[in-house]
Structure formats: C-alpha cells, structure tokens
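quick one
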Amino acid sequence: MKKRSEIAKHISSLCSSLWVRHYISSKIKTDPLYEGVYLELKDSKRPLMDIGSGMAILAFYLREKDWSNPVTAIDYDERKIEAGNLLIQKGGYQGITLERGDARESLPTHQGDVTILDILQFFQKTDQIKLLELAAENVAPGAKLLIRSGIKERNFRFFITWVVDVFAKCSFWMKAAPTYYPTKETFEGVFGKEGFDLEIRPFWGNTPFNNYLVVIKKLK
Ligand SMILES: C[S@@+](CC[C@H](N)C(=O)[O-])C[C@H]1O[C@@H](n2cnc3c(N)ncnc32)[C@H](O)[C@@H]1O
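structure w/ S-adenosylmethionine:
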C-alpha cells in the first residue's frame, strides 16, 4: 500500500502548473482529510458521490489506495472541472466521472456513500440544511454521509479557519467567500433522529483549523 508522501508526489506530478502541483502535494501530505475519508470508506462496496469535489483529488487519492468503486464528482467551478478531467486522463484513472453541477440546484441520481468536504461554509444556513437533507436521500441504507467542515465555535482555531477561507476567495482560488459556518446543532438538527447514527469528531491533524469530521450512517 502506497504511503501518503508517495501518493502526494505522484498526483502532484500530473499537474503542469507549479502552484497547483505544490498545493496538491502539501494538501495531501499535511491535511488528514483524504486519508481519513479513505479509512471510513475502505470497506464499502458502494459507489461514491463527492459533492463540491474541486478537481476530484479525493477520487485520485482513493484510486492510489486501490479503492476502485465508481465515483461521481460534481463541482460548480468550470476551471476545476477542466483541470480535474485533464488529471483523470493523465493519471489514467478509471471509473471517475467529474462533471459540472451546482449543489444548490440539484444532485445527480445516486445511491451509495456521499461526501461533502469543505464546502458547507459557502452556503446560507437554510441552503446548508437543504443540501444535507438532499444528500441524505442519496445515501443508501447502511452507507455513510461524510462531511468535513469548519464548525463555528468561539476559539482561535475558528478564527484561523475563517481568515484562510477569506484569503482563498481574495486570491481567486475559490469563486465564493465563506457565508455561514455550521454549528454542531446544524448536524444534530438534521441527523439527530431515528434512522441515522451521527458522530461529530475533531479532525485537526497538524492543521490550525477548527475542522470536524461528521460521520452519518444511514441505518438499514
Ligand atoms: C474548499 S474546496 C473543497 C474541494 C474538495 N471537496 C476537497 O476537499 O478537495 C470547496 C469546493 O466547493 C465548490 N463549491 C462551492 N459551492 C458549490 C456549489 N453550490 N455547487 C458545487 N460546488 C460548489 C467550490 O467550487 C470548491 O471547489
């Protein structure tokens, strides 16, 4: 099984832009995100839908881990779709569909596991709840909805999370600035009921951000 550093080197080597190469390499090496999601999904035999996938780096990471389930990745940023599809070609990655879609409007038809990673902050509170409910409809019984998000709390980690998201917008890396950060109650309100098993755990790794991994299992 490949190490994180080897995966980072390989995926980033597929990029022609020096900046993107550096971004992907350091993201994979320093952020616990993709490895954490892999550990949650590794025994799943179901297809995955990744909502707000960016260039679909998660999907590439999963392939490098020999995880071969079909992946549908959607994002509303044309530039990322184009760049990601080039990486799919260059990397020879099979079974990954990366297409344009606005999660505010609709989602592709899907039954399986679902991921929503680092995108909720771009949605208003009511849109977040709508997206969470819509995503839950696409989770098959026994499957998981995995969410990584900065969570609004009164601490320095939260401040850093907000500053970096604002910087990402100012540097044009993101199309939008952060609008509203969910609280733990946001998730408890949607999933703290019969039919779901909800776990919210800190997901900081060595990063300074106030990120949590929210694991929702749809009960059979
Ligand atoms: C911080 S990036 C995270 C990318 C990816 N999930 C990851 O963790 O590698 C947030 C992504 O959400 C996308 N996004 C924001 N609002 C969206 C929407 N309404 N529909 C689809 N994608 C959206 C952005 O274009 C961006 O690629």
